[in-house]
Amino acid sequence: xxxxxxxxxxxxxxxxxQPRYDYRIxxxxxxxxxxxxxxxxHIIVYSSTAAPGRSEGRMGAREKKSKIxxxxxxxxxxxxxTSSRYLAVMALMKQAKKKNCSASTVLESDKQFSYLKDxxxxxxxxxxxTTVERRKGQIELVLNxxxxxxxxxxxxxxxxxxxxxGVAQLLFxxxxxxxxxxxxxxxxxxxxxxxxxxISEQLIKFANGVLRxxxxxxxxxxxxxxxxxxxxxxxxxxxxxxxGEEKTGKIAEQYMKTPHYLDLSFKVAVDAIAEDNFLSxxxxxxxxxxxxTVRIQDFNGLVSDIPQYDDGDWWVQSASAATPAxxxxxxxxxxxxxxxxxxxxxxxxxxxxxxxxxLSAGYEVTAIEANARRCRRLNENLERLKFRHCKVETTFxxxxxxxxxxxxxxxxxxxxxxTGTGIRRPDILQKEESDIPELLKxxxxxxxxxxxxxxxxxxxxxxxTCSILREESEDCAHRMLARSEGVSVRTLPFEKGEIAGFxxxxxxxxWLRVLPGCLDGALKDCDGFFVARFIVDS
Length: 538
Description:
By secondary structure, the protein is of the alpha/beta class. It has helices at about 20-30, 85-100, 105-110, 110-115, 120-135, 135-145, 155-170, 175-195, 200-215, 220, 235-255, 270-275, 280, 325-335, 355-360, 370-385, 435-455, 475-480; strands at about 60-70, 75-80, 260-265, 285-290, 295, 315, 345, 365-370, 390-395, 405-415, 455-465, 490, 510-515, 530-535. The strands form 3 sheets. Strands 7, 8, 9, 10, 11, 12, 13 and 14 form an 8-stranded mixed sheet that branches. A 4-stranded antiparallel sheet has the order 4-5-3-6. The relative contact order is 0.08.
């Protein structure tokens, strides 16, 4: 039972409504932190039970608000608790205005997000945002079914974002209904406390009514629309044209999963990792995937907290992203020479995972990165990994020319739509198609430059993308083989067993095509990737 005692002081000069202002502020604090006594307001509340649902923002991110006295003096400031739900709604609203960024990026750049003291509150805010991004198509169809007439007003984006967060909790997260309803609607009530721009009670009642309607029809709405509805229309149509409806359905199902794992690549061989108990000693559950990637299970923390981070023994790299470097190492290794005798180039190298793989194998590596900011990140990562002998150049790959010594191998992980990374980047699912034509030109220009101007005769080109669109991957590889001018190339096909666990991804051309959700075992949870390997003939 909750026992509350309220003491209210009225100041004549403030008028009758001032205690109501205090009540609204303290009411928000009660929902977020029921056991806290806030002496700076004029209501003192004691609660003997926790608030219903998730007790987010227990200490919270607090924003100071002040009330101006009628005489012009500034009164005591008030503590307004910033909850996980509030930050999620703000991020989605701001993203709707910006368009060219993900809501997750907006959330993480919000100072109030970093002020949340409890890691679980930050994780919950991010879960809310990524779930809305991941399920946006389904959520919008549900809301469109509930709202027959859309009225434009200055709070339209805010209310829509709050409704998206509410529906995400009701249909796709294990949030108690009463908490999802009350706490989400409360975001709208407290918006005015953060911004001094109050929302009308009519809009708040409207939002409450919509969410209550959804709560009464959860199963119906949850099963009303397929996961493929979360893909942008152009994206869905291209996937069906490329892979058929069955595989497109599997891909969409896979993209609806929230990843609870983290993939790492190590400098040492997997046998040494299995024998070393340093992860187990820290109660970290992990699996070693067939091709050597170490997958940490149930990861929900800081990467820098993982043992041996400062020692530079490992780096974050998704399981699929490790395959292009393995492909090049395998091809050059078959020539029977010492790795130190080979000079290789990693085009478009940032953030440096593939560069680190090549350096770990003993090759002389030059890393090329066009973007200065990403190049700084590349250098920082190589410094942490203690790879100080790698030459890094900031320039466009299609402009870089070798100055001395022949180049035996090039790893070209080309700029692409990143449509294969929807598990980790749900904003990709609603990506716009407009930048695809420019990407296609860049991919072809990079390939032709590497073949004509960088590689020696007999050199190996590994062309890779994290795209699941044929036009960026298989079609580009076919164009390289069909060239009528310049240096010719031929496919160096993948052999069964060459990359353990990926035999099922080898296609009829001898290339590697990984589709999310379409491999067996643990590799079902992989990013989409394409890898083709060529030898320069003449």
